[in-house]
Write a structure and sequence with these properties.
The complex is a heterodimer. In chain A, β8 and β9 form a beta hairpin. Chain A is globular. Chain A is built from no helices and twelve strands. Chain A is mainly β. The N and C termini of chain B lie far apart (about 35 Å). Helices cover about 0% and strands about 50% of the residues of chain B. Chain B is mainly β. In chain B, strands 2, 4, 5, 6, 9, 10 and 11 form a seven-stranded mixed sheet that branches. Chain B has a four-stranded antiparallel sheet with strand order 1-3-8-7, with no helix packed on it. Chain B has no helices and eleven strands. The chains are: A mainly beta, B mainly beta. Chains A and B meet through β11 of A and β4, β5, β9 and β10 of B.
């Protein structure tokens, strides 16, 4: 069975600090996809990134960066120079086997990030 | 594009009542799914569909029915609401081509009293 663990339930930082959100996953499959979604206070789910299991290159998008390490089954998310608008719940998710499509996702329990001014 | 549209946004039901949560997408996606979000538990898959006429159960299907008569619509039916079904429900759609993410609706907040 697949499992995603986000051990950090809540994190609070002061604006401009860097923060890393941890994600550890379990799967028996060799082909899979990992996702990060953001859920702001308004409640919608915003897609951030999708990464397949064969691509271990780190990715950077503006202040966001992702570190995928297959050896430790981790897909961590770092926000550099955090801003108040980054305050949200962040979810890590794992796709069903052999599909990059997100028809069946296993979600972690989420990390509530609060950025204080 | 409207994307994924869920109705209603809020609903209060009495125990034992039935209702249907509506979900429609205009992206011609083959895959549609229903999730529920409970505090501290993330989102859990209820049912999903890989195309019109084809549905399957997810992790927490009990108490819910689905059908998929068209590509666009994927309604979720609560047959006899229970307080344990108080949750936020999200509908999602995604393409079968594989290289996309799931697009989520705005969610329906359901309270069963």
């Amino acid at each position: 069975a697949q499992k995603v663990t986000q051990a950090q339930t809540e994190i609070s930082v002061v604006e401009k600090e860097d923060v890393t959100l941890d994600c550890v996953y379990e799967t028996r499959d060799t082909t899979y996809y990992l996702f990060w979604y953001k859920q702001p206070p308004s409640g919608e789910l915003v897609f951030l990134i999708r990464r397949n299991s064969f691509d271990e290159q780190n990715e950077i998008s503006g202040r966001y960066s992702w570190n995928f390490q297959k050896s430790t089954s981790s897909f961590n998310f770092t926000i550099t120079a955090s801003q108040v608008v980054d305050s949200a719940v962040y979810f890590c998710a794992l796709s069903e086997p052999f599909s990059g499509s997100a028809r069946q996702l296993t979600f972690g329990s989420g990390t509530q990030l609060t950025v204080l001014p | 594009n409207a994307g994924v549209t869920q109705t209603p946004k809020f609903q209060v039901l009495k125990t034992g009542q039935s209702m249907t949560l509506q979900c429609a997408q205009d992206m011609n996606h083959e895959y549609m799914s229903w999730y529920r979000q409970d505090p501290g538990m993330g989102l859990r898959l209820i049912h999903y569909s890989v195309g019109a006429g084809i549905t399957d159960q997810g992790e927490v299907p009990n108490g819910y029915n689905v059908s998929r008569s068209t590509t666009e619509d994927f309604p979720l039916r609560l047959l006899s609401a229970a307080p344990s079904q108080t949750s936020v429900y999200f509908c999602a759609s995604s393409s079968s081509t594989g290289n996309t993410e799931a697009f989520f609706g705005q969610g329906t907040r359901l309270t069963v009293v």
